[in-house]
Design brief:
Layout (H helix, E strand, L loop, with lengths): L22 H32 L1 H11 L2 H28 L7 H27 L1
Length: 131
């Protein structure tokens, strides 16, 4: 029991449907809902991995289950939601990223330098392995 009691005139914000009044909130809720939906898709893939570990017969049964119309529509919905989630994520990230303590051009040049160095290293390893 608490010793603090609200007065009868205390404002209570209505919680049902508040997000439907603003288009930005609607897009946000769809993006968050897509993340939950895609976690279900990850569980489907983990079930496939589990079936693969149990043997060829179970894995083939899992693959046959994926060929059903319900599963195909689920995968199409997952594809659309992944595309939407990715698009909204890449639109939000530049707005929330902190300012870099150095010019962004330096980061780009550093990225190119690392790419060139790794490419030369990989080519040298391939040349050494083929020799």
């Amino acid at each position: 029991m608490t010793r603090y009691r609200g007065s009868p005139r205390t404002f209570v914000r209505p919680m049902a449907g508040w997000w439907r009044k603003n288009p930005d909130y609607i897009r946000y809720m769809i993006r968050e809902g897509s993340a939950v939906f895609l976690s279900v898709y990850a569980v489907v893939l983990l079930a496939g991995l589990y079936c693969l570990a149990r043997g060829e017969a179970e894995y083939e049964a899992w693959r046959a289950a994926l060929a059903s119309p319900v599963s195909i529509s689920f995968h199409i919905a997952a594809l659309l939601l992944v595309a939407y989630h990715s698009d909204t994520w890449f639109r939000v990230m530049p707005k929330t990223a902190p300012q870099l303590p150095f010019p962004p051009r330096l980061l780009t040049l550093g990225g190119w330098a690392v790419t060139v160095a790794l490419s030369v290293l990989i080519l040298a390893l391939i040349a050494w392995a083929v020799r």
